[in-house]
# Entry
Amino acid sequence: MSSNLWIGSPLSGLREITQAARSWDRSADLGVTEFRALDGAVTLSRTRFTPRRTKLSWDWLLPEDARHLDQLARRVTSFGAFNNNNVEPGPVALIDPAAANLLGALQAAGRCGSSPTEMAWFAAKGAVTFSQFVGNGWIAATKAVDDQIGWTHGTWPGWPVATGMRVSWQLPNGWNETGCTAQLDWKGPSGDYLSSTKATGRGVSADVPAGACFVTPLGVPGQISALIGIDGACLTVDGPAVAGTPGDGCPAMCVTGYTDTPAPRLPHRNISIDLVEVNSAVR
# Structure
């Protein structure tokens, strides 16, 4: 997991905030509503999705970090929407130190939504197919030993990264250690392929190369099988990736609240910022 907070637009650049926040809340919005009848019986309703909400505040924040957050909150540097046209403001990426696995919660558990747009994996090479298995889990089937499976972010062309990070990727424990290959594909601002880092075995780690804005984790099972497990993979930053770690996700977020109070000793500032997980960001 990352030792510090990273925040910013993937296209205008993520920044590492090395100063610890004075307060920090990353609770998910459960979307649960309680209805109580006259006789006292309780009925609950809930929304399908549980978006993550994050609230951060700092005292005596360095001016460079404060300016970065101010520009994000006022949508000056959060350009580059989902179509990467660099015109409309886009969502903000946030990688917090508590996120031990940047894969989504369902994705890390080998599960995904029912619609095609919610598919958490893709066939990067070959005729890989995916099907639902026992307990709402999913499995992959390969037709050749060099078939390749990729993990999708869902919002961006890959997981947001920045120079200075070290990314680690671990394939599921069920994969053959001597026959499989772990791979990281580095991509530019528009999702264009730049280069790859790969290693034989279930794990690979690498420093983010210059110019990379996104990373896509992939794996070659190295066998022909109709029962390739895809649960238990782990993607992390600045720490060892451990297979089986529950997914924390790296969702697209939007700023919903912001305060900026000059500290008693300028140029330091007291900053607070609120964010919520979104599936779109509008002007």
